[in-house]
């Protein structure tokens, strides 16, 4: 699956009553806040487990400020991601 093939991916979220948290296409990722990003490989979609931020130089770990060698396909606000992890 490519970014062009899907505008959003929805994964189940136990913290929201079994509802869905919608992932947005990476093409509209913000640069002014921390987000959770997802990458897709041969095994499927996987969220990156640290808050990320898009900079002019690419993606960085928002905590350590280190460059991340990733090519994410989707994003969602970090606050939603943190709420999901606490509920699991």
Q: How would you classify the helix and strand content by structural class?
A: mainly beta
- The helical percent reads 10-25%
Q: Could you tell me the mean pLDDT?
A: 78
Physical arrangement of strands within the biggest beta sheet: 1-2-7-3-4
Tally of separate domains: 1
Which regions are unreliable across 5 or more consecutive residues at pLDDT < 50?
A: 1-8, 12-19
- Give the termini distance in whole angstroms: 27 Å
- For this structure, the quaternary state is single chain
Radius of gyration of CA atoms, rounded to a whole number: 13 Å
Main pleated sheet: 5 strands, antiparallel
Question: So what's the overall shape?
Answer: globular
What labels describe this entry?
88 residues; 1 helix; mainly beta; five-stranded antiparallel beta sheet; globular; two-stranded antiparallel sheet; single chain; 7 strands
Describe what this molecule looks like in 3D.
This protein is mainly beta and 88 residues long. The chain has one domain (8-77). It contains 1 helix and 7 strands. It has one helix at residues 78-87; strands at residues 8-13, 19-25, 35-41, 44-47, 52-55, 58-61, 74-77. The strands form 2 sheets. The chain has a 5-stranded antiparallel sheet, with helices on one face. Residues 1-8 and 12-19 have low confidence and may be disordered.
């Amino acid at each position: 699956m490519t970014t062009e093939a899907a505008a959003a991916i929805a994964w189940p979220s136990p913290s929201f009553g079994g509802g869905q948290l919608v992932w947005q296409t990476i093409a509209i990722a913000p640069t002014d806040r921390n987000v959770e990003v997802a990458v897709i490989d041969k095994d499927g979609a996987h969220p990156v487990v640290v808050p990320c931020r898009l900079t002019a130089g690419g993606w960085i770990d928002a905590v350590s400020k280190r460059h991340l060698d990733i090519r994410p396909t989707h994003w969602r606000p970090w606050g939603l991601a943190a709420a999901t992890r606490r509920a699991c």
